[in-house]
Design goal:
78% helix; disordered C terminus
Amino acid sequence: MSTEGAAAREMPIIHRIFRRQFAEVRTLMQEVPAADTARVGAVADHLVFLLDGLHMHHTTEDDLIWPKLLDRTELDAPLVERMEEQHQQIDASVAEVRAATQAWRSDPTPATSSSISCLHVESWTPGSASCSAGTRSRRPTPR
């Protein structure tokens, strides 16, 4: 079995997983009773786990994938540069979500959970930016 190109073939899969999981955690947040601090903590922990996973995924792309893609002359460099810029924008938004998650954990109210949903749904949910941009138009195989 050949593994050549496996990372490129798997990229749409991980992006779908992130999109699905962030949508599910948003729903969980909206359904947690404010008085259930244990459940708030569990959902907040899960959101932080997803944020950490997203960060690791983007770091891998930034450090290992984009440089290889930029070295390939047949790839559109502006596309890769746009995805790198989107990662930087997402990183800044993730920092806001982390702070808002801590606020929700400390003061679990509908207002604090709603503020997190608005932040990540509108600003950086995977799929709204780099996750779909790189996989929608072409899926080059880094070597």
